[in-house]
Every structure is written in C-alpha cells, then in structure tokens.
Amino acid sequence: MVEFVVRVPDDTPPWRQVFLAGDGPLGDWSATGVPLDRWGDGTHRARLELPAGYVGHFLATLGRWREAESDGHGHERLPRELHADGPSRIDVDVRGWDQTSVEYHHGFPSRFLPHARTISVWLPPGYGVQPDRRYPVFYLHDGQNLFDAHTAFAGVPWRADEVAEREIRAGTVPPVILVGVANTPDRLHEYGPQRCGRKRERDQSREYGRFLVEEVKPFIDALYRTRTEPEHTGVGGSSMGGLISLHLCKWYPAVFGKCAALSPSLWWDREYFLRNVTVAPGWLERCRVWVDVGEHESSSRVGSAATMRRTRRLARLLARHGPRGDERYRYTEVPGGAHNEGSWGARFDQVLRFLFTAV
Known about the structure:
Alpha/beta hydrolase, Esterase-like, 4-stranded mixed sheet, 25% strand, AB_hydrolase_fold, hydrolase activity, Rossmann fold, Immunoglobulin-like
C-alpha cells in the first residue's frame, strides 16, 4: 500500500479537486485518473494498492491537462517516477498549475483570402524539455472548436488537446503538434469546391488551399520544430472540414500524406468529390486516409441513411483504388454517432492512433 500526500500552491482554490494522472493503476494518463481527498491540514491524499515491482510515472492535475503541475514558472515538468517497492509514503510538492500547451496567433492574415483568422497550436508533452526533437503536424479546420469551450460551437469543444495528451503520455500515439485553423464567414466557400459554372465565382477552396500550403505551413515550420515531409503532415476536419481535407490531399499529395474526414459532407455540389475520386488517383497510393460516419448524422432516418450510403460508396472507392496489402485507409461507422462536436471529439483518439502510430 502506497500513500500519496500532495501539497498544492497557496493560491489553489480550496474547492478544486486534485488528481493523480499516471501509468496503469494511476489512471492510464487520464487527467482525472486518481481523485485525492482533501484533508484538514490542507494536503490532498490517496492510498493505493500497487502491483509488486510496479514502476511508473505520474503528475498531479486539477482535472485537466491544461492544469497539470508545472515547474512554477509556466514551464513543463517531467513526470515523477514511482517505485511501488520503495517508500510507503510519497510526498509531492506542487510548484504551480500554470502549465499551458496551446499558443494562439490571432489575426493571421492572408494574401489569398479576405479574412484574417486565429491559428491555435497545441504542443505535445515533452516539447519544452526535448529541444532537439522534431514533430509531425496535424492541421485541423474549424480550429476554434478544438480546444476551448468559449470559442467552440454550442460551447462543446473536441477537447483535442486533452485527448492527444492522454494518448501520447500513454504511449498509444507518438508526440504530434496540432494546428487549429479557425473558420471565417466564408467557411462554405473556403471548404466547398465547386464544379465549373457560375457558382464557381464564389468558390474560394483553391485559395484556401494556397493559404494553408503557402502561408500557414511555412509559418508553423519556421516557428516550431516540425517534421515537414508529407508522411509526417496530416490534414483533417469534420463535415465540410472533412470534405475539404479530402480535396487537399488530392490537390497536394506532396504536402499532405495523412487525411482525416470525419462525417464528410459528400453531398456537397451534387456529390462532386465522389464523382471525381478516381480522377488522378495517384494520391490514394500515397495518402493514409481515415473516413467515418455516425449512425445518426441527420435528424431524420432518411437523411442518416443517405449519408451512410454516400460514405460507404467512398469507402468502396478507396478500397478499390488504393494499394493492396497495406492498410492505407480506415473506414468506421460509429454506433450512436451524431453530426456534432461532441461526437467528433469522442473518436478523435481513434483518428490519432490510426494516422500517426505508424510514423
């Protein structure tokens, strides 16, 4: 039996719950892995029966990875090491909770598009303490929905940073940088390619592609320690964001080698993408693709069935024209899955594992 005794900074609100997050019996790196009880002396405690010979690592948190313990100066702290066969009491003095891993670049301009927007960058655990390491990058559309409840649609974010932190610390996903690219009032025009015709006049999807490839990516590569090759660069999104991700991998196979299309809007412009998947199909041989669809994509049974048929059709096309003997794509039908941020965030861990575990 091991007793954990955690002392927190004086400015920690007394009503906040304190947790341990760590390997295996310490919560599989969930930020709320092991809840601690507050004692009258101001400490927070828990007693755990750990397996004989257990060796692991852990950190204290306030229930979110954005509020994990730091070095007291806003910098990342390496996890503490624990030996179950060591002392029966572990004393932990938390220096601060001010660790943050999301950086914001507001008002990011473009010479191709009229609206500036926010670029949000989540840095994985270890980034601040491994200065010689470079990281793959995952670019995600509708970036305002990824991390923060106050900017997310309906106040429900994907919690992509929390999910990625848990998976990376648990060892199921290698460290990866997440880049959120916020949308603008021109979202449909930027995410929705049109066939030739009068409607093409409002189509800004090609310009959006140039914005990502010629402006956002060079900015990220210059400011952060990235791996720039296509096999280490992914793009993804949901709904219309999933649709434009498929187009971008087709247009720029030398830039994006990984694609995530969650509930892609394949109905757009009379199924334009579906009708052209196999035109210049070389991208399918080089790109690793995740495609999924929820059971309840629409408020009506008829609408959900139509969405399911389109997505299954895309899956068949990917299987037919992709390389043999190598799982380069994954198609998933999500039981109970809906067309909303909460549902997409709930399967983001699966997306990360499929796209980046093989890196």
